[in-house]
Specification:
Shape: globular
Structural class: mainly alpha
Strand content: under 5%
Distance between the termini: 51 Å
Largest sheet: none
Number of helices: 12
Number of domains: 1
Oligomer: single chain
Length: about 280
């Protein structure tokens, strides 16, 4: 069981979510609902395992931190992202149609669905790489992205802690281009299923080893270094789902035989509550 949890949990949960998504689509459940439903099955499993067998007991959150991250989950990840998607992206599409601006349906619809999904993962990660890197290198943007790195506890709900301006810009830059080149909704839905489950596992407090996948996927081990309090790790491993582009552009950080000790910014004065973290980027 220990070997399975270490080496088999990541591929098992990724496969399970993709399989459940396919089942729900075949049942003619709406594509958006089919994208979110698999996580109601796997999140309780991850939560249980984090408390049963945590990678680091020092990363287990306290009640106040859980409250803060639940606020981010509900308000930013669910309500704001839905508003942003509906209000901005579909609003832009309406303006595009109103003014008869050109769209370019250049997407290879004849490719098998799995091939289209792989293409989206690679192309989206290339866009996200440069946006994410800018949020670390440009001081004004880093003010907003620091909210995500402010977690000094590391567990799956850490994935929710994003300032809405940070989340909005990253979502806009990584989604809009695919809308205007004709990517089908169902292919995007498979991408999002993979993105959601991988992001949750990246931030989980579990001992997950992926072996050779550390050369392809932005694995939990690599993402732990991205959240480490050391500058070498924090400003590296920008990949969203893949580590390929970090390898290409020289920003991969993977010290052999070492593990992350301290998570966060290393700043004890950084605010902890939801409202104060929303306001912190605007403070002097």
């Amino acid at each position: 069981m220990k070997i399975f949890l270490t080496y088999g949990l990541w591929p098992s949960l990724v496969f399970t979510c993709l399989w459940l998504h396919t089942v729900f689509l075949n049942m003619e459940i709406h594509v958006v609902l089919s994208t979110y439903l698999p996580f109601f099955a796997v999140v309780p499993v991850i939560t249980f395992l984090e408390y049963l067998r945590p990678y680091s007991k020092e990363w287990m959150p306290q009640k106040e931190e859980i409250k803060t991250d639940i606020c981010f989950l509900v308000i930013v990840q669910i309500l704001f992202e839905k508003f942003f998607t509906v209000g901005v992206i579909f609003g832009l599409l309406a303006l595009w149609d109103l003014f008869n601006l050109p769209t370019y349906d250049i997407w290879p619809h004849h490719f098998p669905l799995w091939g289209q999904t792989v293409m989206i993962v690679f192309l989206n990660d290339l866009l996200h790489y440069f946006v994410h890197r800018a949020f670390h290198r440009v001081d004004f943007l880093w003010r907003f992205h620091k909210v995500h790195h402010s977690c000094d506890k590391f567990y799956w709900l850490t994935v929710a802690r994003f300032h809405p301006i940070d989340k909005g810009i990253q979502h806009f830059c990584s989604v809009i281009p695919f809308v205007f080149i004709g990517v089908p909704e169902v292919a995007l839905s498979y991408y999002y299923v993979f993105y959601f489950i991988n992001s949750i596992l990246q931030h989980s407090n579990l001992d997950l080893k992926l072996g050779f996948l550390n050369y392809i996927v932005s694995t939990p081990y690599l993402h732990q270094w991205h959240h480490s309090a050391t500058a070498n790790g924090m400003h590296a491993n920008y990949g969203n789902n893949l580590i390929v582009w970090d390898t290409v552009f020289g920003t991969k950080y993977s010290p052999l035989g070492d593990r992350v000790r301290v998570i966060g910014l290393g700043e004890n004065h950084y605010p902890k509550t939801f409202l104060r973290q929303l306001l912190e980027p605007f403070s002097r």
